[in-house]
Amino acid sequence: MLQRKNLPIVLLLFGAGLILAFKSLGFGLGNGNPPTKYEKILHNVGEMLAEIHYSPKKIDDNFSKEIFKKYLGEKIDDQKNVLLQSDIQQLKKYETKIDDEILGGPVQFVPAVTEIYKKRLPETEEIYKDILSKPFDFTKDETANLNDDKLDYPKTEADRKEAWRKRLKYMALERYYDLLEDREKNKGKENFVVKTDEQLEQEARDRVLKILNRNYDRLKLKVSDDDRFNEFVKTITESMDPHTTFMPPVDKRYFDEEMSGRFYGIGASLREEDGNIKIGSVLPGSPALKSGEISIGDAIIKVAQGPAEPVDLTGYNVQDAVKLIRGKKGTEVRLTLRKTDGSVKAVTLIRDEIVQDETFARSAVINTPKGKLGFIYLPEFYADFDNPKGARCSEDVRKEIIKLKEQKVDGIVMDLRNNGGGSLYDVVQMVGLFIEGGPIVQVKDREGKPQVYYDRDKAVLYDGPLAVMVNEFSASASEIFAAAIQDYDRGVIIGSTSTYGKGTVQRNIGLDKTMGFLDPNSELGTIKLTLQKFYRINGGSTQLRGVASDVNIPDIFEYTKIREKDNPDALAWDEIQKADYNRWKYGLDLNPIRKASAERIKSNALFTTIHNNAEWLAKQSDKMVSLSLKKYQEEQKKNKAIAKQIEQQNKLPHELNVEPLSEDMKRIEAGGDNAKLERYKTWLKNLRNDPYLDEATNVLNDMVTQTNLVYANVNKNQ
Fold first, then answer.
1. Are residues 227 and 278 in the same domain?
2. Which of 71, 73, 93, 327 is the most buried (most CB within 10 A)?
3. Are residues 271 and 231 in the same domain?
4. Count of domains in the chain?
5. β-strand pairing of 411-415 with 371-377
6. Minimal CA–CA distance to 627: which of 204, 136, 266?
7. Is residue 351 domain-shared with residue 426, that is, in the same domain?
8. For the segment 502-528, what is each residue's pLDDT rounded down to a tens digit?
9. pTM score
10. Exposure of 53 in the CB half-sphere (CA atoms within 13 A)
11. Which residues form the PDZ domain (predicted)?
12. Which of 81, 390, 454, 429 is closest to 256 using CA atoms?
């Protein structure tokens, strides 16, 4: 199933208007008893949503019903196979009371849900273990609806067991099919043990059982009452709009680390394998390497903060384990490891700074028959807000441009594909590298007062041809950059029909009243709150509509519902008055560029295949599945044929001539991290075989040709 990429929010400094808004909040608790931690969090969040959110929904009985349905159906029991309809009926008394809890009443709904859920969990554990203890009959012609959105809670225990049987049978069928394929492929090979159909069916069930046991270990041992409450608060905040959310303290720290590219930890990457969290790699110079006691393949059994009681990692996923191992610089973390030889060892480490520079901007040179082009990859608009000397993407991109200019490139491709956004300050600075000053973006609050953000530096670092690559996962700050470049006629936007469509601005607000709500690192948690909307300098919002590409390339996800517009809680599109700006004096006529690209794409077999299969992909999540081996095999045959079509044509006839900058390669080689070097080489290899980059270089070369003519004409008339 496709998962929506988490989109970073844009962080801004607090304005005077926001501080005044805080002062106006009473944050009364309604009842006379001292509030619990849960009540403090929920009540503070409720008043912030009502008083400060850009466009809040009314917190009333209708909102309460919405939260009731979403929390139970999306957070607690998304597959509708744990709770019964009688449980939902029992909880119905809270259906119109959640708004009262948010607005000051005692927290009762989540504890009631938890009580029922804890009762049902061991029942369903018994159900799946019983079902998986018996063979499945894959000759029977039956179907299952696995679309969670179209399922209802079972009426009886028998209905629940039948729902489990069908889901487990499909999971086993997938693995049984794979095992049959593997047997057919390897039959006759030396040392390969040929198993019977019955043995393979048993192995398929065993594999499903292992997955379910691991998941239930997580639900029983990892997921706490606090976790269920936190998900409840998230359900409330995210119902206001998709980007308003609640972060417990550990999630807030992890968010800051991802934005800054800097964290304090042990310097080891983790991987999940057979339900264990294992060491995947160890960074040179890190605390893990210096200890001499941590090796690749070691399984981490427990993690302790200094002298505190260790936390058992059974049921933990990699991200949750990472959150435990990271912490403040200079603090102690104790790992209990199961070594590859089976021995158990406790290792004490002191956390130190780790820089994730692989998430920073990087560049390369593309040599084409028509000339030399520069390429800049920017995975996110990162910024280390807590460290004035920390990494900032605008400064890093500036350095990459200078390096490419020294290579005397004829044009630059800026790759913002899959870039979910980040720092507003940096996107303003970055657009300024390409224009002679002027407005970059407009931001409006709930009072309707637009503020224009300007590039006030008249200097232009790079004035040559510019192409910006985007796709449906390019969001927020990426869309501001693309929109500004487009509105100024400064470059050409290349990619899917439109970008993601996130045109809202969030701020991190701590929930600690004693700190005036201005410390974003509250022990109660933090709310990422939508306070403003972005508008292009031409007046249109990037919300919902995103940025339409100047040159469109077929995309496999074109019809898949993954953009902002596909979320029913998304805020609406609108427009305001345009800003005063002057277009780039060397602007190009895009018509011949579009026409030439369209002709190339039309004759490109890969893009034809992608276009034809985009609708097919979008329909895959909506259909019923067959539990018959014969029908499943037929379906897989079709799917494999389509996948093979795409795979065969996904390689360029001739690789692009992509070269790293020698200084970058030397720096990485000198670092002594072989795994990092291999990842860098893989990145270059992927670029050489990227059909989208290939078409972007064709477009950029067409731009270079036209730019030379435009420059000549402009200079002639001056």
1. no
2. 71
3. no
4. 3
5. parallel
6. 136
7. no
8. 999 999 888 876 655 556 777 889 999
9. 0.85
10. 26
11. 252-326
12. 390
CATH label of the domain that carries residue 451: 3.90.226.10
Asked which of 302, 332, 355 is the last residue of a domain, the reply is 355
- Least confident piece of the model among 72-86, 122-136, 367-381, 643-657: 643-657
Closest by CA to 374, choosing from 237, 468, 508, is 468
Q: What is the tens place of the pLDDT at every residue in 222-244?
A: 899 999 999 999 999 999 999 99
- The residue length of the chain stands at 718
Residue with tokens 């487009």: 486
Distances (CA, A) of 676 to 311, 332, 353, 660: 30, 27, 18, 15
> Distance between CA 327 and CA 253 in Å, rounded?
8
* Per-residue pLDDT at 2: 30
Cβ 363 vs Cβ 661: under 8 Å: yes
Tell me the C-alpha to C-alpha distance, in Å, between residue 244 and each of 315, 327, 461, 504, 627: 28, 25, 36, 10, 40
In angstroms, the Cα distances linking 40 to 33, 64, 102, 223, 531 are 12, 19, 10, 21, 22
Report if residue 689 sits inside a domain: yes
- Give percent of the chain above pLDDT 90: 64
Task: Give the C-alpha separation, 235 to 299, whole Å.
Answer: 34
**Rounded distance, CA 521 to CA 16, Å?**
20
> In 220-286, which residue ranges form alpha helices assigned H by DSSP?
225-238, 249-260
Long-range contacts, 86-93 (Cβ 8 Å, 24+): 87/116, 87/120, 87/153, 88/153, 90/116, 91/116
What is the band of 318 on the pLDDT scale with cuts at 50, 70, 90? confident
How many other β-carbons are positioned within 10 Å of the β-carbon of residue 584? 20
CATH of residue 297's domain is 2.30.42.10
Six token digits for residue 122: 């061991």
- How would you classify residue 15: left for phi > 0, otherwise alpha for psi between -120 and 50, otherwise beta? beta
Task: Write down which residue in 326, 355, 384 finishes a domain.
Answer: 355
Q: Tell me, yes or no, whether 423 and 527 share the same domain.
A: yes
Same domain, 374 and 289: no
Domain assignment of residue 47, given as a range: 37-240
The first and second tokens of residue 378, run together, are 């920017």
Both tokens of 608, joined, read 């034809």
Contact 495, 470 (CB under 8 A): yes
| Cα 41 from Cα 17, distance rounded (Å) | 23
| b/e code 346-380 from CB counts within 10 Å (16+ = b) | ebebebbebeebebbbbbbbbebeebbbbbbbbbb
Burial of 521 (0-12, 13-18, 19+ CB in 10 A): middle
59 and 78, same domain (yes or no): yes
CA distance 144 to 150: 12
**How many alpha carbons fall within 13 Å on the CB side of residue 113?**
26
Q: What Rg, from alpha-carbon coordinates, does the chain have?
A: 28
**674 and 690, same domain (yes or no):** yes
Inside any domain, residue 250: no
**At 40, which amino acid appears?**
K
CB 527 within 8 Å of CB 251 = no
pLDDT digits (tens, 9 = 90+) for 26-46: 433 344 467 899 999 999 999
**Token digits of residue 56:** 């809040």
Q: What share of the chain is helix, strand, coil (3-state, %, to 5)?
A: 45, 15, 40
Please report whether residue 115 resides in a domain: yes
Distance CA 431, CA 482 (A): 9
> Is the model's pLDDT at 21 over the cut of 80?
no
Residues 364 and 376 in one domain: yes
- E-strand ranges in 551-602 read 551-552
Nearest 5 degrees, angle CA 374-CA 426-CA 566?
Answer: 90
Angstrom distance (rounded) from CA 81 to CA 128: 11
DSSP code of residue 8: P
Q: Kindly state whether residue 613 falls inside one of the protein's structural domains.
A: yes
Report the C-alpha gap between 438 and 41 in whole angstroms: 42
